[in-house]
Amino acid sequence: MTYAHPHSGDSADSGASADAARQRAAAADSRAGGPSRSGRPPARTARARAAGPARTAWSGGLRELCALVLLPVPLLVAALPAALASGGASGGRRWFGGGRGGSEQQRAAAQAAKDAAAESFYELDTAQRDLRISIETISAVDSSPRSRKALDDFASIGRRIDEVSSGYITAVDAHDLDRHDLDLATATRAHNELTKAKDELDRVKGELERFAASLGPLLESAETQLARLAPAVERAKQALLAASNALDTVRGSGLRADDLAARLAALSPELTRLNEGAGRHGVSETLQRADRVLREAEGVRRDAERLPERAREIDRRLVSLRTRAQALTNRAGSVEPVLSELRRRFSVACWQDLQSVPAQAGENVRQAETKLAEATRAREEQRWPDATSLLSTVRALLNDTDEAVSAAGDRLQRLNEVQKDPQREVDRSRFAIRDAQRLAMAGRSTPDPRHARPLDDAVGRIDRALAGLQGRHPDYWQFLTEMEAVRETAGRVVTEIREERAGTGRH
Fold first, then answer.
1. Separation of CA 57 from chain center
2. Which tens digits make up the pLDDT trace of 261-284?
3. Which residues make Cβ contacts (< 8 Å) with residue 268, sequence separation at least 6?
4. I need a labelling partner for 111 at 20 to 30 A (CA). Which of 54, 135, 178, 208 fits?
């Protein structure tokens, strides 16, 4: 049997056979999931991409080995070195689980890092969106320095979020993990960069969460005000409606309420602003406006409901004050006889300050009668505030007149009593001094000079006042005034002692 030499004329046929074998192997490789006509791998899941290349390498290599075994021996000898060197028509695969598997494993690791980074990116974006809602809530309600600082801090964190997000997007765009020719070094670099991007995203997300936790009190206050907003506005509107209804009822009874109507009309612009809402005027301002409208509208309603009774009260006061003015006119006429007796029996100092009482009393009564006439006209015209104010003026004038007229009679009575028995006033004053002295000595061997000195002076003032009554025309009014001053001094010392001891007891 003659064997053909590898370099004989059969080499062309052998080469053709080897080419055919390689074509069959390549076709088998393509059916098994090898490269597509476009040169890109078909879409797969991360897990399929990680496992598929290893299976393809093993099955493709096996088919190529079988094809070589079936070749004639000369062709086998010629094809075997090239097949072993190149890894077959599959381009880069090595038989028996060689280096191609390492790059595919790193591709899978890079894809997992990419998926984890995408999840972190989504979580950071969601947290930022949620916190932006809280920040907008705070800024809509609160304009305090704390709120403004929170807005600035959120903007600063937003800039850091933009930085790490840009880094993540750059890392994703820099590496096509679905490339057919992705090598081990490129896959490793992609894995490292994507892992770093994820770590940066997680770090900034932690910073964002800590910042969100610090906003708790501000956010709680803002949410509380927002929760109050709608009920407060509704209460204000209901109060305005109730005031309007009460005003209509009063007018229906025949009473005018022009002042109440003016007060209610002044609230109309406020109602317009309430209807425009907090979006235009702010939450805090709207809440304050609603409270103010509620308070003023309720005041209008109460005054409207009380108006019939107020009218009746004004009528009663007109009658009462008119009667009192007439009575004081009669009493003022008795002041002159009292003054005449004071002049006759006592020294000038005892009655000189009462000389103007008759004239002042008459003038006060005349002014009161004039104001009464004006109040009557205001009542008839239903000018309720004017009527009330005029009646208050009349009452003050009559009170002053009553005190002045009564003072003349009281002066005469007291001067008569002290002229008859001045010792009674002396005894009252000395009793007040002794009471203060006993309190000053309680628990002490010697009195405090701050208390003893004014009491000792008061004793001397009594003696001097008694001496002043000697003579033909004693000044009894000066004597009464001095005795009252002594009793006031003793009372003041007692008060000081009790306050000091009460303070010591507390400490």
1. 69
2. 999 999 999 999 888 887 777 788
3. none
4. 208
